[in-house]
Amino acid sequence: MNKTELLGRWTKEKSEELYGIKNWGAGYFSISDKGEVIVSPYKNNNTTAISLMDIISGVRERGLDMPVLLRFENLLDSQISYLNNSFNEAMKNLNYKGVYRGVYPIKVNQQQQVVEEVTRFGQNYHHGLEVGSKAELVAALSLMKDKEACLICNGYKDEEFIDLGLYAVKMGFKCFFVIEFPGELDIILERSKVLGVQPYMGIRIKLSAKAGGHWTESGGDRSIFGLNMSQLIEMVDILKEHNMLDCLKLLHYHLGSQIPNIQDIRSAVLEAARVYAELVNEGAPMGYLDLGGGLAVDYDGSNTNYAYSRNYTVEEYCTDVVEAVMSIMDSSNIPHPVIITESGRTTVAYHSVLVFNVLDVEKFEEYEIPDKLDEKAPEQIKNLFEVSKNISLKNIQECYNDALYYRDEIRDMFKHGRISLRDRAFSERIFWNIINHIAKEKQKLKHAPPELEDIESAIADTYYCNFSVFQSIPDSWAIDQLFPIMPLHRLLELPKRNAVIADITCDCDGKIDRFIDLHDVRKSLPLHEMKNGDDYYLGVFLVGAYQETLGDLHNLFGDTNVVSVRINPDGTYELVKEIHGDSVSDVLSYVEFDPKAMLVSFREKAEEAVRAGLITASERKEIMRAYDNGMRGYTYYER
Ligand SMILES: *Cc1c(COP(=O)(O)O)cnc(C)c1O
């Protein structure tokens, strides 16, 4: 190997830096010496790490096709431990006299497997559940066993919901009704009397504190949920009137999800703690302070107050929360409450990885253009050609404007029949060479003109991938959320291409063209050149929170295959559960088609074709088999 090759050699360290895996991987994801992404159930301890490529071949051998959602139960467990240990540690260090009792909000990932694992493993810490609807309460009661854990009922509650919750209390569960609307109190009081159950009551308040970030609507004065201070006092008075103030045990607020700035978290805790202290002064027994969700996930690994990051660690969050609660309680001589948080995103985001293969690539390459133009070429094409010859660092903005101007003029001429298709095609090649050249020059500039902001993605390759953005990462489409995405192998090779990702829905929104970056948002993702015939796999990470049930059936791509993986302490792994994704007939029946009737009607058409002599009877058999196979097939691209 000569010196330049040696200097230029690509290493796993370079891949780590390029894809930022150490920044967002939270110690769970890293790159092996073989250049593959590995997952390890214990933070920063790779002794039991498993390569995602090994899991993919295991999944393939069992006959499951891509895309597959991999769920790592160990990472769920690990995050629950991490959260509880961090709170316990902070409480010990600060000499806090209360305890921490986390609850998992089911809405963040309602899959049975996930909720079951959270309740099973959560028993170690008395980690409970939060529900926001009757359906979620019904689900929670089927899975919860731990009577020490809290079961928090938020959301609008009808009589059925309330009765069920009251029976849960009767059965010994710590089931709290959190009043979100003033109107709820009456039926809770009435049903408690009828059923003879003393309810655990809580109140959700609106804080004046507001938080930055994407999901801030739930906090703040104008949020639709929770009571304002005047309604709160009214509630206290009604409870006093009914001699029921001794049921009021909990204060709750929820500022919104993914709060990137620790200052916002602190000021909300301080405000809520003050309200809590005042409720104690009013004579309510209290005992529980429920700070809602909001603990953010660092999706881009930048550790900043950017919307998809956070400027604090879980440990810092816990310390700040405990400290803030303590400072208010101590100054009013009030016993330290049980601190509850409803952290959903942080609990489940890490445990799921979406993996898929690349189906095809449309490369962007420089076109071959002759040095000189034909004398008879149209004037506008000559002008465009001139632009292409004169690009320099000084005039890229001007060249860009000129190129757009001449291109539009040429398109117009084409519409009016003044130039041929061949000439128009030729002009577009020149145009794209200009754009390519400008993009290269732009990289040398510190401050590029704003018009050129997206130019890299315009000249990126398109990697067509076997998944649906709408089904599997809906927040990427709906709110431009960023998730870490990277190849799962070949990480000892230089990724030579810059790409955007297109899914197979063929919808112009079915693409990903914004990627994580430490300082900014990257407009293309470095990927490896496809090798003839070899599979190339990508992973989208940290997709365990909010993505699964928000997904839709765009273009009738259904649920993906799901495989649950459990990594054993000896470094082996098991595929503990596999759920087959939707078949074509599944998704058709979701939109009210009747697969059986469709088969009958298609068979009639085939029979007509036999009668008309278009196909033979044995061809009819083959055609029917193809139709039937299509019905049974996976909705994604099958090998
Ligand atoms: C959505 C929600 C949560 C979860 O918030 P995360 O930021 O995901 O932890 C908690 N509590 C309530 C009331 C919610 O609506």
Automatic annotation (TrEMBL):
Q: Which residues are the active-site ones?
A: 506 (proton donor)
User: Which keywords appear in this protein's UniProt record, sorted alphabetically?
Assistant: Decarboxylase, Lyase, Magnesium, Metal-binding, Polyamine biosynthesis, Pyridoxal phosphate, Spermidine biosynthesis
Q: What are the BP-aspect GO terms?
A: L-arginine catabolic process; spermidine biosynthetic process
Q: What is its EC number?
A: 4.1.1.19
Q: Which reaction does it catalyse?
A: L-arginine + H(+) = agmatine + CO2
Q: Which intervals hold domain Orn/DAP/Arg decarboxylase 2 N-terminal?
A: 87-349
Q: Please indicate which superkingdom the organism of origin belongs to.
A: Bacteria
Against Pfam families, the record matches this protein to: Arg_decarb_HB, Arg_decarbox_C, Orn_Arg_deC_N
- InterPro entries from the xrefs? Ala_racemase/Decarboxylase_C, Arg_decarb_HB, Arg_decarbox_C, Arg_decrbxlase, De-COase2_N, De-COase2_pyr-phos_BS, Orn/DAP/Arg_de-COase, PLP-binding_barrel
Name any one GO molecular function.
Answer: metal ion binding
* Pathways involved: Amine and polyamine biosynthesis; agmatine biosynthesis; agmatine from L-arginine: step 1/1
Q: Which cofactor does it need?
A: pyridoxal 5'-phosphate; Mg(2+)
Record-listed N6-(pyridoxal phosphate)lysine modification sites: 107
EC top class named in words: lyase
Domain named Arginine decarboxylase C-terminal helical is located at: 584-637
Describe the location of the Arginine decarboxylase helical bundle domain by residue ranges: 374-455
Family under the similarity heading: Belongs to the Orn/Lys/Arg decarboxylase class-II family. SpeA subfamily.
- Please explain the role this protein plays, according to its UniProt record: Catalyzes the biosynthesis of agmatine from arginine.
Q: What is this protein called?
A: Biosynthetic arginine decarboxylase
Species, as recorded: Clostridium thermosuccinogenes
